[in-house]
Amino acid sequence: MAKITLSNLAHSYVPQPKGPQDFALKEMDHVWEDGASYALLGSSGCGKTTLLNIISGLLRPSQGRVLFGDRDVTDAPTAERNIAQVFQFPVVYDTMTVRDNLAFPLRNRGMDADYIRQRVQAIAQMIGMEAVLDRKARGLTADAKQKISLGRGMVRQDVNAILFDEPLTVIDPHMKWELRTQLKSLHREFNHTMIYVTHDQTEALTFAEKVVVMYDGRVVQIGTAQELFETPAHTFVGYFIGSPGMNLLDARIEGNVAHIEGSVVPLGAGYGPVSGRTQIGIRPEFVRLSASEGLPVKLRRVEDVGRHKIVRAEFFGREINIIADEGAEIGADMTRVTFRPERISVYADDWRVAPAGQLGEAA
Question: Residue 225: which H helix or E strand, with range?
Fold first, then answer.
């Protein structure tokens, strides 16, 4: 296992980049702790797989260094980094049995036969493939083959890190939940450093201790599920995390109030001068419908999703989402919304602004 340090790291696929727009990964400095589990989360094209491939050694960064512990591995090939990697689509040896596929990484390293047998049996049980251990991989479904890939990635106990690149894409939805649970169990048991790439917030938030949110080639926040939900450091985090995501409204900030389209919204704290494009962000969970106070809105529709209702409304051409209790009565006269002041975040040019007297928050 190893602490992974990314120092002054950046990457461009353009031979002679002329500016930030030419970089798939913008400059970053991060330390990922030994034995922790991380999820790399973001939409397609944000740089997740590029970053994972740099860590694994499949790609050399344009600038900066990658360290495993105190060792600089920037120029070290994948084979020397002592990692296991599971890709989006299954990589198995069709002519081998499931048992031999799982045993392959251990036999390659000359492990003891009894140890190999025990580890293969334990991993087969974890991925639910005990009954087919002696079947050839050829002819198995893509779902089953990907489980073999997962198992082969996890069979070794001596790796520096296990890297997963959207490994559950081809897995049946019910099995996804089961395998995520098993991965968490494996992490608790062996404390491997795990990095899991996904665009699915549910996968990220249920698997990882900390989620690394990426946007436009940049890490915009690293945090727990609670931190990402309660204090998004960037508007993308607010929008991307949650269902529906955070409501964002252009506003002028003045002390402890926000001015929005001629209305005044009280904030839960005071702010100094805020420049740039300023917005307030509020989660739908902390918005309330009212008949008499707040911002004027037009109700568009109500979606009953079982546990609660999602009310879709419009405010000066911008959509506002409200989460109401399942049993809440939504009258035709409820055409205003109020926000819980202590749950409002202020943003300038997409980055969260700390209230006056507090230190700013970094990603």
Answer: helix 225-230
Closest CA relative to residue 98, chosen from 122, 130, 125, 126:
130
Q: Cα torsion at 116, 121, 126, 128 (round to 10°)?
A: 130
Q: 12 and 134 share a domain?
A: yes
How many angstroms separate the CA atoms of 189 and 295, rounded? 51
Reading the chain (363 residues) residue by residue, the pLDDT tens digits are 689 999 999 999 998 898 889 999 999 999 999 989 999 999 989 999 999 999 999 999 999 999 999 999 999 999 899 898 888 888 899 999 999 999 999 999 899 999 999 999 999 988 889 999 999 999 898 888 988 998 998 898 888 898 999 888 777 777 787 777 777 777 777 778 899 999 989 889 888 899 999 999 999 999 999 999 999 999 999 999 999 999 999 999 999 999 999 999 999 999 999 999 999 999 999 999 999 999 999 999 999 988 899 999 999 999 999 999 988 889 889 999 999 999 999 999 999 999 986 644 433
> Would residue 361 count as lying in a domain?
no
- Rounded to the nearest 10°, the torsion over CA 55, 57, 63, 67 is 50
Dist CA 93 CA 91 (whole Å): 7
What total of structural domains would you count in the chain? 2
Q: Which helix (H) or strand (E) holds 300?
A: strand 298-304
Domain containing residue 338: 245-353
Helix (H) or strand (E) holding 288: strand 287-290
pTM over cut 0.85: yes
Using omega within 30 degrees of 0 as the cis cutoff, is the peptide bond preceding 244 cis? yes
Number of alpha carbons in the 13 Å side-chain half-sphere of residue 292:
0
Neighbours of 84 (CB within 10 A): 20
CATH number at residue 256: 2.40.50.140
Q: What share of the chain is helix, strand, coil (3-state, %, to 5)?
A: 25, 35, 40
Strands 278-282 and 345-348: antiparallel
- Look-up of token digits 């990457």: 11
Closest CA to 152 of 76, 198, 91: 91
